[in-house]
Predict the structure.
Amino acid sequence: MVRIALFLWILYFLSRPFEGATPGIHCETCEDYLKRHKCHPLAEQCEKVRRPCGCCDECAGNLNDKCSSYSARCATGLMCVSGKGEALESVPWYMFHYEGTCQNVVVRPVVVENMDVQERPRGRRRS
């Protein structure tokens, strides 16, 4: 019971709206950030993206570029694919150990037929 309560509390905490772009992260204002940092110039022919809490545009990752929670997301139409074959459109900030490369991914529906399923009797169970 304690584990369920703790899980629900964490879930509630992470889903609360915070100042900034992503729930669960407190972002400093861009005004404060830009007083201490400068935005790097970007290549003209790149898809411009911005990270959660980001104040500067970045170029999205292209085909075969490395991707992680520390990099900009992959370009439109690409997904970050790990060595295990897991594919994410954007790697969340809390997945620190996730690393992959930007790849084209074709998602196909999977149909699973299980002929061993037995129907349960309907109605109330008797004890």
User: Anything to note?
Assistant: The CA atoms of residues 72 and 114 lie 41 Å apart. The two ends are 25 Å apart (CA to CA). The first strand starts at residue 48 and ends at 49.
